[in-house]
Structures are given as C-alpha cells and as structure tokens.
C-alpha cells in the first residue's frame, strides 16, 4: 500500500495549493462586490485598469521575492533596491534625454543586478542568514540612494515623453505596465515550474541538506535567486519612474513589507519549499484591491497597514493549521495501511 | 569557546576606546564633554532599553522585529489617552501592560502555533504600526506637563547622566542577573543551543519563550514612554525603523543570530559603540544618510566577521564538522 499514501498526499497537497489560489479569488470577490455596490464605477473598465495598475509594481516585486522565499530565504532589501534603481534610471533620462527607452530600463535592471549580487554573495558565499544580510543592505542601499540624490527630486518634466507613455499608455485597452507585469510573472512562473534550476529552488527550500546530497549546487542556486530578485526589483524601479514621473530618494520606502505580505498571503510558505509565483501575484492584487476599496468606502487610509499586517499573520496561521491537519491526515492514513 | 567570546568583547571595548579617542581628536575635545555625553546617553536610551530583552530573545534562537512598532503604538496610545483626559499616572502602567499584551500576541503565535518568529514579527511590525496610525492618525500630542518630560530632557541633578540611562543601568543589572546568574537564564541558553535537548531535559521551552516575548513587548512600551517624553511629542510614527538599530546593536554585541551564544555586556558595548560612532559622525557634520550606511555596514560586518573567522578556522585546522 506504499504507493497509495504518496498519491493521496499529493492529492491533498494539490487541493491545498489550489484552494489557496481559489481562496484569494474568493477574497477578491468579497472585497470587490460590496465596494461595487457603494460605487459602481469601481468595476467599470477604468476602475479595473486602476486596480491592476496599482498592484503592478508590488506584483513584479512579489514575483522576484517568490524565487528567494521558496529557497527558505528572504530579501528585505527590495524596497531600497527599487528606490536606488528608480533614482538612477530617472537621472539617466534627465541627464541624457536621448537615451533609448530600452537602454534606460536596462540601467534600472543593471542597478538591481548589482544589488542582487551583493546580497547573493553575502548569503551564498558569506553564509550569513539572509534576514540579517538584507536588513543590513536595506539600509545601505537606501543610504547610498540618499547620498546620491542629495535631496533632489526628478520631475516628469525632466523625463522623456516616451517613458511616461510607457507608464500610462495602453495596448488594446490594457495598460502597458500591466502587460509588462504579466510578462514578468509569467516568466518567473515558467522558470520555477518547468526549468531544472527553478525546481532546484524548491528542493533547496524543502530540505537544504538533502538538496546538497542530491548534487544540487546550493550556493550557486541561492545566489541566482538573489540575483534575479535584485534584477526584478531594478526593473520595478524603472517602471516606478515610468508610472509616477516624480522620483526622490524615498521612492519605495517600506515596500518590502507589502511585498513579503503579498508573497505570504499568496501562499508561498515562509519556511520555503512551496508556493507559486501566480499565487504571490494574486496576493499582491488582493492587498492592492483592499487599499483601493478603503478609499472608495471612505475608510481612513491609516487602516491599510494594520490590515496588511493582520492578513499576513492570518495567512501564515491558516497555512500552519492546514499543514498540521494535512500531517495528521497522512499519519492517520498510513496507520490504517500499516 | 569562552576565549573567543572574551576576544570579541575585548575587540568591542578596544573599538569603543578608538572611537572615543578619534572622536576626541576630530572634534577638538567636544566628544568627551559632559554636555555631549548627556546627548549621547539620551540618543541611545531607547535602543538600550529594547536591546536588553531582545538579547534574551535572540539567545533563545528567536527574533522580534516588531519592537519599534510597539514603541510607536505605545506612544500613540499615550497621546490618545492624554487627549481623552486620563492622568499620566494611569496612562503609563496601562501602556506597559499594552506592550506586554503585544509581546504576548507575538509569543503565543510563535509558541502555540509553532510559527517562525521572523514571519510573525514582520506581520506584527506592520500590524502594530498600523494600529498606532489608526489610534492617533497623523496628529501629534505635545502638551505633556514638564514634570514628566523632564525625565527625558534633563540630567540626574549634579551629573551629566540622563534619567533614562539611570533607568537603563538599573534594568541592565536586573537583566544581567536573569541571563547570567539564574536558572531561567541558563535555560534560555539551553533552548538557543539545542531546543529539542532543552525540552528533553525538562525545560518548559514554550513558557520561557513566551515570557521573553512578553518582556520584550513591555520593555518596548517603556522605551515608547521614554521616547515620547524625550521629544515631548506623541506621534504614531515615533521610532520608525528603530528595530534595525536594536538588532544591529545586539548582533554587533556578539550574540549569535542562530541562538545559544552572547552576553549582555557585549550587547551594551555594542549599543555604546553604535551610539558613539553616530555621535562622532554627527559632531563631524557627516550627513544622516552616511549614518544609515554606516549602521547597515556595521550590522553586516558584525555577522560576516564571525562567519568568516569560523570558516578560516575550520579550513586552517583541516577539521570539518561531520
């Protein structure tokens, strides 16, 4: 009967996994429908576009963060990486207005890559816990950002129109920024789902020692995860410039909390080893939607942070209870078989 | 093992002396001036107060990132209750109890549900700060009587010692006795070194950890009171980001992030070193941005140095743990 238990385990695990994404969709409906009754414009085309736009930067960051969290690590420096990349991207455009848009975006990605390399080296080679490393680099990157900016601000008037079009334009009625977000989420999801090195990230997060014994180059894979998270945060910085047009050294301060909350609410286990990029992106959409609903329902915006925190704790609690239930279920099953 | 620790703390004290000497030279004698030491003391008061219980939490192998948010929440509640006409004699104990409740929530989530303290306290970092904003919004309450704010702005008569540092010193002795000379303290080390082993040797692991989180919450609220009186201002965003300074001080003080190792003396040296360095840089007109970078770098160095020395040690002796 040994073959039955694993297949049943997989069925239950799959159900739990799918239940999470379904759960977020239900939660989305629960917040959107009452809000739509209060203000029908909330669910018109423009309202939906705004919802997606507001969630897009966090969703991009959440896609990168997922790669790190499934390896049982965390990257708290993404908000600062975004800020540094946003400022340097904007400065590039302000100093050289003729810079092609793609090159400008690459500047952002490049800045993010450098930040990711620093984190990755410290975690993978220095063997220092990622929590501490990225808490440190959170402040270092932000400090560098402030030192470079020297209190200046770059405004939309200093930026090329093509860039701002990217942030506010549409393609077939869908905002370009949302399309870019979907592309990043799809790419990260494909990488984690179907590529060997992507699968390795799950193996590392489930059991680091076993991953080493299975011949997975653990330090290299963890380094890659931080590298990708940094690059994605860098891209998000460039998109931030395109979306908001105004950048100072404080851009994206505190964003890491929203990102970690989105990832965890989206069903990525903070112990590593499970969760999907799509779930994380849905988590970002849910948190963004709640923020928008508060505005429509005229609830003071002060509630937003408390709600994200409560959702994060609620999500890990539910995950934990489900995991305990699952473990008990499986144990009961194998006892019967034995 | 003991030798290495002695060395880490010796290095910290040497660094402290170095900072003091360099500071004294760079500022033309202004660093060790009584007036400056008073401000240095004020500046590190809250960090020191929170670092005391957090040391125990980290030694037990856990972490609490919500401390600065508890500080902010207690400050916001002080403001709101004062506005509502409560007396400070009634407000202050209430706020300490509130802090203990915040800590108990962290502790119960960690011990009863078995959740990782990192994730729990990132959540409550957002939750408690959010509640502070809900309580006080973006208002500031500033009309506290000077009989109370003097506590945060004047020295103990006849000295340059700020009142909060005197409070800290008394509590530091209490915490040092708890951690280093009581069976409770030994059980904290035992839990941090080997939780399972500790459980099998009859230590009530959950109860010890819960106690530590409650203590941390209460001390963070106390730091919130000190912070509020020091600036004579209750605001919801008081102490945003202070958790970094506290965690940096604890790790710089030689406490292992993996638990089981570290001393309170080392942590106090870490607090002084960070505060002293900040103070020298400020006297030297270095911008606050550079201060942020320096704090972050010190945090990185303090965890990287032990990790690298441990690796050099194992590779040079050729011994590897199985």
Automatic annotation (TrEMBL), chain A:
Coiled-coil segments: none
Source organism, top-level taxon: Bacteria
CDD domains: TM_PBP1_transp_AraH_like
Keyword field: Cell inner membrane, Cell membrane, Membrane, Transmembrane, Transmembrane helix, Transport
PANTHER family, alphabetized: ABC TRANSPORTER PERMEASE PROTEIN YPHD-RELATED-RELATED, AUTOINDUCER 2 IMPORT SYSTEM PERMEASE PROTEIN LSRC
Entry function: Part of the ABC transporter complex LsrABCD involved in autoinducer 2 (AI-2) import. Probably responsible for the translocation of the substrate across the membrane.
Record-given protein name: Autoinducer 2 import system permease protein LsrC
Annotated organism of origin: Umezawaea endophytica
TrEMBL record, chain B:
GO molecular function, one term: transmembrane transporter activity
Matches recorded under InterPro entries: ABC_transp_permease
Protein name, UniProt field: Autoinducer 2 import system permease protein LsrD
Domain of life the protein comes from: Bacteria
Principal cellular location given in the protein's record: membrane
PANTHER family with a match to the protein in the record: ABC TRANSPORTER PERMEASE PROTEIN YPHD-RELATED-RELATED (PTHR32196), AUTOINDUCER 2 IMPORT SYSTEM PERMEASE PROTEIN LSRD (PTHR32196:SF71)
GO cellular component, one term: plasma membrane
Localization (cell): Cell membrane
Keywords: Cell inner membrane, Cell membrane, Membrane, Transmembrane, Transmembrane helix, Transport
Mode of membrane association: Multi-pass membrane protein
Transmembrane segments: 37-58, 90-111, 118-140, 160-179, 210-229, 241-259, 266-284, 290-310
